Amino acid sequence: MNYLKAVAITAALMALAGCQRAAEDTSADEAVIRASAPSWADAYNAGDADKMAAMYWEDAVLQPPGAPAATGRTAIRTFLAGDSAGAKAAGLTLNILEASAVDVSGDLAYEAGSFTVTDASGATVDTGKFIGVFEKRDGKWLYIRDTWNSDNAPAPATEPGA
Fold this sequence. Notes:
By secondary structure, this protein is an alpha+beta fold. The protein is 37% helix and 33% strand.
């Protein structure tokens, strides 16, 4: 009788083991996600709004600090064109080496990391963090949600009429 129990338990364990998903190798996808933020920063510094916008799905949402959300590639392009032009005119450079955290799960992934902003002399004038959510469609990873914020406290509110 003990022999039959052992065979039944072994068979059940083998069946359960067969039901578990094999560990998925996501290293190639992670590399694509990890390279996205530095590529985005290069396009931002160059003022290449078309290249930046091409990194977002048509139904993506950009949630920049201190501004309303931009929904859709056209609105995202418009926002980023103005924002990057303003930074360039001010002599500012966005610096992102790569995302410090990346995770891929099926057709969704995220990146998170930090950035610095330097002025024309190379002095750091701002630091902050970002998080981007990607979706894979037709074998291509693009942003579906993107946001960032500064580590600096917001400017104090001014009183009306002041």
